[in-house]
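Table S2 (text version). Query chain:
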Amino acid sequence: MAKDPYRLDPDRPETWKNFPAPYLDPRYVRELIALGGLNRFDEPNLIFEWGCSALEEYEGKKQLKHFAYAVTVRKPGHPFMVNGVWAYPSYLEDIAWPRWFVSSWIAPEIAGPDWPRGRYGFFMKLDGDQGRYSEINRRWMERIAGQLEYTRNRTDATYAAEVKEHVTGVDLESSSIM
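Corresponding structure-token output:
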């Protein structure tokens, strides 16, 4: 099995970082735009986002959108005493998933007043086998198209049944409840 160049390993602090985005072939970006179309602001309905660099504003502050975990990073400086224990200057750094994501546009009337042009929300995380990094390729584009088709064909009633099944644990279509 191929080595994952973007593996987050809890036992290896050198992996606790936000990796720069790998190369993304522009033909897949164009294909994604063709699949999703454009919204009323002439922007794509679907976009690729690299987990480690996708930011979103929340309560007036930019933060990572595809958060994985936070790590304590030691700052340069001398240790100091806190309640009888030596401590080092440090800060928390957010680490995001080093994976490609597909995000879909959410209209402003759904996104809320903080996003007058709408916003992009999670649609799909592109993980390979066993959660490993996988570059965007023809196979991924086919899976994205299939997921998009499935999403577009779902009716509100089907979605409501899926939500109820998820919440209650009861398959409502095969039970006598519906």
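Notes on Table S2: Residues 8 and 132 are 10 Å apart (CA to CA). Helices lie at 26-36, 108-111, 138-153, 156-168.
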